[in-house]
Amino acid sequence: MMRSSSAGRAAYRLFIYAFLIFLAVLSLFPFVIMFINATRSTFEIQQSGISLIPSSYLASNYAILTGKTFDPLKGFYNSVIISTGATVLAVYFSTLTAYALFAYSWKLRQAFFTVILAVMMIPAQVTSIGFYQFMYRIGMTNNHLALILPAIASPATVFFMRQYMMASLQLELVDSARIDGSGELSTFNRIVLPVMKPAMATQAIFIFVASWNNLFLPLILLTDNDKYTLPIMVSLLRGDIYRTEYGAVYLGLALTVLPLFVIYFLLSKYIIAGVALGAVKG
Predict the structure, then answer these.
(1) Are 62 and 251 in contact (CB under 8 A)?
(2) H-type helices in 38-169, by residue range?
(3) How far is CA 118 from CA 6, 121, 256, in A?
């Protein structure tokens, strides 16, 4: 009986591992195809469809890409400025807001939190017209700040940070710092933020990816070619009515995706640490 039960557990474990590996391969497959197609010509992509063998047209695709008013360095710079600024502001001020909702007791605290939850239910497209009119009237169109500063108000991030604080932040640490004479902002920066690192890293990945891939608002706010982000440049690659160079399009997409992989790998250890911390606390 013991041998049969251990063999059954081993078979079940092997099945779980095989299933997880299959899901991982399935998730990575589109990215692999994208990188391989970036090395193939338009004719090869149209004729042979999916292929797992790289071709030799990477240099020619890059020449076509840069010949279509596509400036990868300029687009990369603009995307980095917008995404990094939006991520830093959203993570820091959302954590600060969540700290005010968690650590302080004030009369309208629950009502304020309810309003934040209600704002989460409103799609961004609903407010886009009013947002554009507001930016136009204050002269902020065609300005990267119009895409960076609004990130301070991030209801979903505030909600996530508050829930994480309720499980991980001990108010005794905050009270001890106050007794030692630490100011409120200093206590937040030196004690609360280190505790919140896993949650901040997780949200930083989500916010950076969302800001990097954002096409709708930059497309209506930015009209100067020098201020275009990478997603806008990639979207314009298919504007040729005579011929679409799919190899160049895939290369543009690959250049757009690469920084997201770098950000994830840099911050993934904090996510793992957060999961481990939650498991230990549980």
Answers:
(1) yes
(2) 42-48, 58-67, 72-103, 109-120, 128-137, 145-148, 155-168
(3) 51, 5, 33
Cα–Cα distance, 266 to 260 (Å, whole number)? 10
Count of structural domains, the chain: 1
- Residue found by looking up tokens 């757009």 in the block: 256
Written as six digits, the tokens of 60 are: 């020619």
46 within some domain: no
| 139-181: pLDDT as tens digits | 888 889 999 999 998 888 999 899 888 888 888 888 888 888 8
CA distances from 56 to 38, 68, 245 (A): 10, 20, 15
**Domain enclosing residue 109, as ranges:** 65-281
**Residue with token string 């063999």:** 7
| Token reading at 122 | 């409103």
Give me the helix-helix angle, 155-168 and 109-120, nearest 10°.
130
Evaluate if pTM is beyond 0.85. no
Structure tokens at 221: 């706010």
9 near 17, Cβ under 8 Å?
no
Task: Provide the CATH number for the domain around residue 152.
Answer: 1.10.3720.10
